[in-house]
């Protein structure tokens, strides 16, 4: 019927898009696409990731001699491509796997990016990387932990972050050492949400601990973005576990901290699994009532003048927040990708892919505490690892485990408020 | 005559679109418009024609999507095989929830459908067989053409176009049948329709089941295109609302209303996101929200209603001119 | 009964009172005036941000934040009525969903644009911390919210049943043409209803901010609870919403404790649907 009426605006919009992408095309730059949740429930994480990548861009594109031998910092641009500058095109996945895939397609075909990074939520990383695989564009992920991502037989997907099996081991080692120093760690409760993140980490922990003959005693699952968590805290209060492991996003983490104070519940040991407890918003909102909480992290600021300390400072200037582990892991993934492009000396996807496969970064070349970056056949970083940090003063996390990286000894029991 | 002429032109334009706007993203945009038009047209049968505002249609959308992905995940079959299974399941579910909820009037019906949708989402989130929170994926690499996993959006575009044509044909046929007559009567006043002997409960239930079945087809096609479904993207309330506002914005209860709505909202959302989303300041939705507000404020009956009105006005003007000419 | 179970029920009642509090505004516009407001949760969110701004800029607690939030939101209610709702009401019911959904996005992301996406929070001891009554822990901030919920419900109920303004508002809701013939101006009545509804919602937001986190998307979490509360209570019944709120709070709390937190929302939705089967007009709704 009146279909013609709607083709007009559609056409105008389509033309506008074509023009926009045409005008942006520039010579001598390497374009990388970044898909993150820049709106919706996870927007806070996405906005932090964007700031982290912008800091990385500053380090890569400008001369930063103060970084010493840190890769890509010394001279301006990518040396392997004659000093070419790196440009990142950000896109918002809106928390939807469909939008994430649409935007990944747009970045590949309209913006002509040579590689992609993102997309925070595992489900969106899954759909966005699927389109990259179809087009033969490298996709480097630094933060999604769902195990199925690297089980798809993809050739263009690389993941730098440690996954649940890695940190289950770290937790186990940590508990073993704490037990040796006199703490009780027999009765463990795991509190987790029912998102893919919460469930996959909880399941892996349960499997790993069971295998070691030390099964998890209590499993408290809840639906994320809860309006209330009193009943869960009371369940814990009833069972009195020695250790509570919290796997929560920021919203629920804040609510748990407040509710635990209100109901006067302090487990002897509280260990958080990164995510919400690493969010600087959490520390501002509930740090003072969560003193002594242990947390997993691969990031630590390090001594003054070190590359990590400079990065922390640059990041704070950029975003107004402290650097957290999630943003740091995303930043590291971006550095790994830029380093591969630099070594490839080319913007050809196949050459970047080959360089990524040949990646072998040593700990001193990283801004995060992995044992290195080296990918297996599936694209998973086999040298990813984490450390345990503690919020001793309610304001700043310090590394407490393993001993080699510890800034301070762990303090027991959990102090709370 | 005139109607057929315009319809022919419209069909030619839709067929030609992906050749005029031929970049992959533009083609995909076109396919998405058609996909959402299918869902919104399906919703239109119960929400527009029958006036029963279901805000839980995502249950059927998700049912189709999960059936398609489940067929692959659990039986290594083509997702296409899941489509009829999802359709049958959706119609059955619609019958089960339709009998008690369609008795409810107005807001209570809407609320009940919301509750059903949320219940479904929570149950699926905790059901391992359906992938729980992680969701179900389609084939990562297409095994053959029946996996419907293409790089180009072109096959999807024409597939969706065909399904949309069938959906609209069914709707058109329905509106011209006795059922359509009953539905309009129910929408205007259910009590009056009943007193005139229209089988209101049965008619509403049939419309609901028809609408559910077609919605599940949209869901299955969605999952095939994106190769993935999880509780939020397959059963989230936002999808229901999106479908609903597309129909409302285009013109609910009008055959082409949902298509017009989808043709406005989908590009608006994708393009505002492409242009503004990367800034990370939430501006996409400020613009998107503001435009919806403006349309609701100035055109509460939907865009197509406005076009129809202008059309009718022009016609009467022409006719009166004609009349004046005859008189002189 | 064990002390823990008492604690669970007390916690549920306090939670339910909060649900009732942020649903009261919706009862008025949705239940009485027959307008669906999809932006309701975002009105709560705005109330929370007002409280947050009052605290950070002026250092004021809810004593200052709550009245200010009420005032700001009441003004917004009037603006929304004249700017959008009045015209939208001329169209079909769907136009209300369309318009208020657009409004929800507009409000949510304007706040996002201005304040950013970070989670914010007020200090926990702004309203006197927590006290202990025979071993039952009660948060002062939640107790305050609960008391205000009772007062607001009682006030609204009196307004609608005992005052001329109330009966005029009801007359307009019932039949605006007839009301006009009787010399009542529907526009003013509707605008007043929106001001009261939005004001009560702002008040709720400001009080909830004292024990909840503040983030632009928080309205999504709270909005759906308000929808269930109002319809369970019965459209058009202010006391119904209070009872429904308390009921939902206790059911959530008990089922969360006894069965598991994952199931508590399922239990609420299932009971709600089952309830509609027996009583299609809600707890206290008119048939």
From TrEMBL, chain A:
Transport in keyword set: yes
CDD domains for the chain? PBP1_ABC_ligand_binding-like (cd06340)
Q: What does the record list as GO biological process?
A: amino acid transport
Q: Does the keyword Zinc apply?
A: no
Q: Which N-terminal residues, if any, form the signal peptide?
A: 1-25
List residues of the Leucine-binding protein domain.
Answer: 29-362
Keywords in alphabetical order: Amino-acid transport, Signal, Transport
| TM annotation in the entry | none
List the InterPro entries.
BCAA_transport, Leu-bd, Peripla_BP_I
What PANTHER family is this protein classified in?
ABC TRANSPORTER SUBSTRATE-BINDING PROTEIN, LEUCINE-SPECIFIC-BINDING PROTEIN
Q: Which family does it belong to?
A: Belongs to the leucine-binding protein family.
What is the designated name of this protein? Branched-chain amino acid ABC transporter substrate-binding protein
From TrEMBL, chain B:
Q: Which InterPro entries match?
A: ABC_transp_permease, LivM-like
The source's superkingdom equals: Bacteria
Regions crossing the membrane: 28-46, 58-77, 83-102, 156-174, 205-229, 241-265, 285-307
Q: Name one GO molecular function term.
A: branched-chain amino acid transmembrane transporter activity
Q: What is its main location?
A: membrane
Instruction: Please report a single Pfam family linked to this protein.
Output: BPD_transp_2
Q: What is this protein called?
A: Branched-chain amino acid ABC transporter permease
Where in the cell does this protein reside? Cell membrane
Automatic annotation (TrEMBL), chain C:
Q: Could you tell me which InterPro entries the record lists for this protein? A: ABC_transp_permease, BCAA_transport_permease
The membrane-topology field of this record reads: Multi-pass membrane protein
Q: Name one GO cellular component term.
A: plasma membrane
Pfam families per the record?
A: BPD_transp_2
Q: Where is the protein localized?
A: Cell membrane
Output the Gene Ontology terms for molecular function: transmembrane transporter activity
Q: Which domain of life is it from?
A: Bacteria
User: Is Kinase one of the keywords UniProt gives this record?
Assistant: no
Task: Give the stretches traversing the membrane.
Answer: 6-31, 38-58, 64-85, 97-120, 140-160, 191-215, 221-250, 257-278
Q: What keyword terms does UniProt attach to this protein?
A: Amino-acid transport, Cell membrane, Membrane, Transmembrane, Transmembrane helix, Transport
For biological process, the GO terms are: amino acid transport
Q: What is its main location?
A: membrane
Family recorded in the similarity comment: Belongs to the binding-protein-dependent transport system permease family. LivHM subfamily.
What this protein is called in its record is Branched-chain amino acid ABC transporter permease
Species assigned in the record: Bradyrhizobium macuxiense
């Amino acid at each position: 019927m009146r279909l013609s009426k709607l083709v007009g605006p559609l056409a105008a919009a389509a033309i506008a898009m074509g023009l926009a992408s045409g005008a942006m095309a520039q010579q001598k730059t390497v374009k990388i696409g970044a898909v993150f949740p820049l709106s919706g429930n996870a927007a806070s994480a996405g906005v932090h990731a964007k700031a982290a990548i912008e800091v990385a861009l500053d380090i890569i594109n400008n001369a930063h001699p103060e970084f010493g031998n840190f890769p890509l910092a010394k001279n301006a641009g990518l040396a392997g491509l004659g000093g070419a500058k790196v440009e990142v095109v950000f896109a918002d996945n809106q928390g939807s796997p469909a939008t994430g895939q649409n935007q990944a397609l747009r970045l590949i075909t309209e913006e002509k990016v040579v590689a992609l990074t993102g997309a925070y939520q595992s489900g969106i990383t899954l759909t966005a990387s699927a389109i990259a695989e179809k087009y033969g564009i490298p996709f480097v992920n630094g933060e999604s932990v769902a195990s199925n991502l690297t089980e798809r037989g993809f050739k263009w997907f690389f993941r730098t972050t440690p996954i649940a099996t890695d940190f289950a081991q770290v937790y186990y080692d940590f508990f073993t050492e704490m037990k040796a120093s006199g703490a009780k760690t027999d009765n463990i409760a795991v509190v987790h949400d029912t998102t893919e993140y919460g469930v996959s980490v909880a399941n892996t922990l349960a499997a790993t601990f069971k295998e070691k003959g030390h099964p998890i005693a209590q499993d408290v699952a809840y639906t994320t973005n809860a309006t209330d968590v009193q009943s869960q805290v009371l369940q814990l209060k009833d069972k009195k576990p020695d250790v509570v492991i919290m796997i929560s996003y920021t919203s629920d983490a804040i609510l748990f901290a407040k509710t635990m104070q209100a109901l006067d519940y302090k487990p002897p040991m509280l260990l958080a699994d990164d995510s919400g407890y690493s969010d600087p918003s959490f520390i501002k909102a509930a740090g003072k009532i969560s003193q002594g909480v242990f947390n997993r992290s691969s990031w630590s600021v390090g001594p003054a003048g070190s590359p990590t300390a400079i990065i922390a400072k640059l990041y704070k200037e950029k975003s107004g927040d402290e650097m957290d582990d999630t943003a740091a892991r995303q930043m590291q993934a971006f550095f790994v990708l830029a380093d591969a492009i630099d070594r490839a000396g080319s913007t050809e996807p196949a050459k970047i892919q080959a360089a990524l496969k040949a990646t072998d970064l040593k700990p001193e070349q990283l801004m995060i505490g992995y044992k290195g970056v080296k990918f297996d056949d599936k694209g998973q970083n086999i040298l990813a690892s984490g450390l345990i940090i503690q919020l001793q003063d309610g304001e700043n996390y310090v590394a407490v485990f393993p001993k080699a990286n510890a800034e301070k000894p762990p303090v027991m029991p959990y102090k709370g408020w | 005559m005139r109607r057929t002429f315009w319809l022919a032109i419209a069909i030619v334009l839709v067929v030609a679109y992906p050749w005029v706007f031929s970049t992959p993203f533009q083609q995909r945009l076109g396919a998405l418009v058609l996909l959402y038009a299918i869902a919104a047209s399906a919703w239109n049968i119960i929400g527009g024609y029958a006036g029963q505002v279901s805000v839980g249609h995502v249950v059927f959308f998700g049912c189709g999507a999960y059936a398609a992905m489940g067929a692959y995940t659990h039986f290594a079959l083509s997702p296409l095989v899941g489509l009829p299974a999802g359709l049958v399941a959706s119609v059955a579910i619609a019958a089960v929830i339709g009998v008690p909820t369609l008795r409810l009037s107005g807001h209570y019906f809407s609320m009940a459908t919301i509750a059903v949708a949320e219940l479904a989402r929570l149950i699926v989130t905790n059901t391992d067989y359906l992938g729980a929170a992680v969701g179900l994926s389609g084939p990562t690499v297409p095994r053959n053409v029946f996996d419907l996993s293409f790089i180009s959006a072109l096959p999807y575009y024409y597939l969706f176009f065909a399904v949309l044509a069938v959906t609209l044909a069914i709707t058109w046929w329905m509106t011209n049948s006795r059922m359509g007559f009953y539905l309009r009567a129910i929408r205007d006043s259910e009590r009056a329709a009943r007193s005139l002997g229209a089988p209101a409960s049965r008619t509403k239930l049939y419309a609901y089941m028809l609408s559910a079945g077609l919605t599940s087809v949209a869901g299955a096609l969605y999952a095939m295109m994106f190769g993935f479904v999880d509780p939020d993207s397959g059963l989230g309330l936002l999808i229901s609302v999106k479908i609903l506002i597309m129909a409302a914005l285009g013109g609910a209860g009008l055959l082409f209303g949902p298509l017009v709505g989808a043709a406005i909202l989908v590009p608006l959302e994708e393009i505002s996101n492409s242009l503004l989303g990367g800034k990370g300041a939430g501006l996409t939705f400020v613009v998107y929200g503001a435009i919806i507000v403006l349309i609701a404020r100035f055109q509460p009956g939907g865009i197509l209603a406005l076009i129809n009105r202008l059309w009718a006005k022009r016609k009467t003007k022409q006719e009166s001119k004609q009349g004046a000419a005859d008189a002189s | 009964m064990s002390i823990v179970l008492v604690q669970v029920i007390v916690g549920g009642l306090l939670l339910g009172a909060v649900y009732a509090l942020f649903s009261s505004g919706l009862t008025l516009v949705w239940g009485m005036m027959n307008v669906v407001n999809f932006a309701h949760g975002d009105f709560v969110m705005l109330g929370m941000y007002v409280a947050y701004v009052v605290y950070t800029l002026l250092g004021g607690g809810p004593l200052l934040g709550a009245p200010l939030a009420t005032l700001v939101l009441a003004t917004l209610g009037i603006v929304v009525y004249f700017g959008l709702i009045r015209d939208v009401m001329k169209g079909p019911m769907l136009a209300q969903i369309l318009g208020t959904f657009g409004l929800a996005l507009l409000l949510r992301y304007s706040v996002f644009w201005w304040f950013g996406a970070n989670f914010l929070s007020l200090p926990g001891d702004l309203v006197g911390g927590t006290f202990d009554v025979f071993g039952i822990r009660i948060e002062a901030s939640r107790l305050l919210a609960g008391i205000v919920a009772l007062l607001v419900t009682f006030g609204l109920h009196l307004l609608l049943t005992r005052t001329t303004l109330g009966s005029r508002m009801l007359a307009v809701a019932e039949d605006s043409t007839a009301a006009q013939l009787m010399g009542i101006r529907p526009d003013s009545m509707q605008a007043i209803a929106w001001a009261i509804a939005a004001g009560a919602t702002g008040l709720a937001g400001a009080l909830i901010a004292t024990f909840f986190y503040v983030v632009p998307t928080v309205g999504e979490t709270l909005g759906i609870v308000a929808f269930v509360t109002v319809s369970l209570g019965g459209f058009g019944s202010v006391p119904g919403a209070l009872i429904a709120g308390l009921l939902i709070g206790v059911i959530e709390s008990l089922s969360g404790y006894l069965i598991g937190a994952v199931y508590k929302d399922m239990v609420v939705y299932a009971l709600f649907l089952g309830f509609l089967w027996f009583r299609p007009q809600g707890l206290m709704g008119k048939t």
